[in-house]
Write a structure and sequence with these properties.
Layout lengths: L1 E4 L10 H15 L4 E4 L9 H7 L3 E8 L5 E9 L2 E5 L1 H4 L17 H12 L4 E5 L10 H6 L3 E3 L18 E3 L11 E5 L12 H5 L7 H22 L16 H9 L2 E3 L1 H9 L1 H5 L4 E9 L1 H4 L3 H10 L5 E8 L3 H6 L4 E4 H4 L3 H6 L1 H15 L9 H9 L1
Parallel strand pairs: 1-2, 1-11, 5-6, 6-9, 9-10, 11-12, 12-13
Antiparallel strand pairs: 3-4, 4-5, 7-8
C-alpha cells in the first residue's frame, strides 16, 4: 500500500509538514507495511517556501527592508537556477513591527530586494508567491529595489507606500536591473482582482491592512496615476485590468507589467516544483487537506488542486481538515471520497487547534484501519469502497 500525504498547513496550529507527519504516524501505527510519501504543499501564499524547502530547495536568508522600512531577515529558497520567494516573509502583515498596520505607507521594497538577491545567486527562474502583503503600493517598492526610479515634480525620489504615488510625475527605467530581461518570473496567486476600482486592490484588500474609506479612495487614485506612467514606461496598456493585477496590494500588476511575469494558479506552481504529479504515479491513495475546507477551497486552493491532479490519473483522494462548511455531496463533487474534520472529534476550537497533531494521528490510524489488507495492487474502486463503508 503506497500512500502520498500532501496537505497544506492548518493555520494557527500546524504547518504542512507537521500535518503530514501526524497523519503518517497514525497510518504507520496501524499499517507497518504502508509506504508513506510525505509531500507538504501550499497554494502560493503562506507555506510556499516550506513546501519548496521540503522539495529540495536550499534555504537562503537575506536582510531586506521590511514593510515599514525597518530591516528584517527574510528566508527564500534556491535550487540550481530556480528561486522561490514568499512575499509575506519580506513585505507581509505578519512581520509589521508591533503589528501596527500602515496601509498608506507600507512598502513592497523588501520583495524586490529578495528578487535581486536571487539574481545575484544565479537564479534565472523565479517563483514569486504572493499573499498576506502589508501594503497597497502597486509593487512600486519592489520595482524601486530593482532600479526603477519614481520621481516627484521636483525630481526627488518618492518614499515608500501607496499614498506617495499621488505625487508621481516621472518613471525612469534607465537603471532597471538588466538581468530581469534574462529571467523568467512566475506570479503564483489565485487572486483574480484587477488593480483599480471597486474590485481592486485598495477597495477589496485595503481595509484588511488598516485602510479607512478615505484611505481606500486616496490609494485608488494614487494607483491610477502610477498605472498610467508605468504603462508609458513599459508599454503595457491594460495590465491593470488583468486578472491578478490586484494581488498583494498590486504587486501582481508590477510583476506582470514591469517584470513580464506569467500568472499561474499558486497550487499548480507548487505542485510543479514539488514534483507531486510525478510522485502520484503508482500511488494507491492520496491524503490532502487544510485548516478549513470551504467555499474558498473550491476556488482552487490546495486540497482541490491536489485532488484534481490525483483524479487525473485515477488515484482516490481523502481529505483532513480542522473544519468544513461543505456537505458530503459537495465534498465528493470536489474529489474527496471521504473527509475527516477535527471539529467532529473535538468541538472546542481552542482544544482542536492545540491538539491537532494528536487528532490527526487518530484520523490516520482510523484511515489505516479501513484499508484493505493483502499483497499486490488494490483497485481504486475497492479501496474507495473500503474507506467509505
Amino acid at each position: 500500500m503506497r500512500i502520498v500525504i500532501a496537505p497544506d498547513k492548518f493555520k494557527g496550529s500546524l504547518d504542512a509538514a507537521g500535518v503530514a507527519r501526524a497523519v503518517a504516524d497514525g497510518i504507520r501505527a496501524v499499517r507497518h507495511d504502508a509506504a508513506v510519501d510525505l509531500v507538504p504543499v501550499a497554494d502560493g501564499g503562506e507555506g510556499t517556501l516550506d513546501a519548496a524547502l521540503g522539495a529540495g530547495f536550499e534555504r537562503r536568508t537575506t536582510v531586506v527592508s521590511g514593510p515599514t522600512g525597518a530591516p528584517v531577515a527574510a528566508d527564500w529558497g534556491l535550487r540550481g537556477d530556480e528561486a522561490v520567494i514568499e512575499m509575506a516573509l519580506a513585505s507581509g502583515l505578519g512581520i509589521l513591527p508591533g503589528g501596527i498596520r500602515d496601509a498608506r505607507g507600507a512598502t513592497s521594497r523588501g520583495t524586490g530586494e529578495l528578487i535581486a538577491a536571487a539574481l545575484d545567486a544565479g537564479a534565472r527562474r523565479i517563483v514569486l508567491g504572493v499573499g498576506g502583503s502589508a501594503g497597497t503600493d502597486g509593487g512600486a517598492g519592489m520595482l524601486q529595489a530593482l532600479g526603477l526610479r519614481l520621481l516627484d515634480g521636483a525630481g526627488a525620489v518618492l518614499p515608500g507606500g501607496g499614498a506617495a504615488l499621488a505625487r508621481l510625475v516621472t518613471v525612469d527605467a534607465s537603471a532597471f536591473d538588466p538581468r530581469l530581461a534574462e529571467a523568467s518570473l512566475t506570479l503564483a496567486t489565485d487572486v483574480d482582482n484587477p488593480l483599480l476600482g471597486p474590485n481592486g486592490a485598495a477597495a477589496v484588500f485595503g481595509p484588511q491592512k488598516g485602510a479607512t474609506p478615505e484611505d481606500v479612495a486616496e490609494l485608488d487614485a494614487a494607483l491610477a496615476r502610477y498605472v498610467a506612467l508605468i504603462a508609458d514606461a513599459f508599454g503595457v496598456p491594460g495590465a491593470a485590468d488583468a486578472p491578478g493585477a490586484g494581488a498583494a496590494g498590486g504587486v501582481g500588476f508590477a510583476a506582470v507589467a514591469a517584470l513580464g511575469a506569467e500568472r499561474r494558479s499558486g497550487v499548480d506552481v507548487v505542485l510543479d516544483f514539488t514534483g507531486l504529479r510525478e510522485r502520484l504515479v503508482g500511488a494507491d491513495l492520496v491524503v490532502t487537506g487544510e485548516g478549513s475546507i470551504d467555499e474558498q477551497s473550491l476556488g482552487g486552493k490546495t486540497p482541490v488542486g491536489v485532488a484534481r491532479a490525483a483524479r487525473a490519473i485515477g488515484v482516490p483522494v481523502v481529505a483532513v481538515c480542522g473544519r468544513t462548511t461543505l456537505d458530503d455531496d459537495r465534498l465528493r463533487a470536489a474529489g474527496f471520497v471521504r473527509t475527516w474534520a477535527l471539529a467532529a472529534r473535538e468541538p472546542d476550537p481552542e482544544v482542536s487547534m492545540r491538539d491537532a497533531a494528536r487528532l490527526l494521528r487518530e484520523i490516520g490510524a482510523e484511515l489505516a484501519a479501513s484499508l484493505p489488507v493483502g499483497d499486490g495492487a488494490v483497485r481504486a474502486e475497492t479501496l474507495t469502497e473500503s474507506i467509505t463503508s
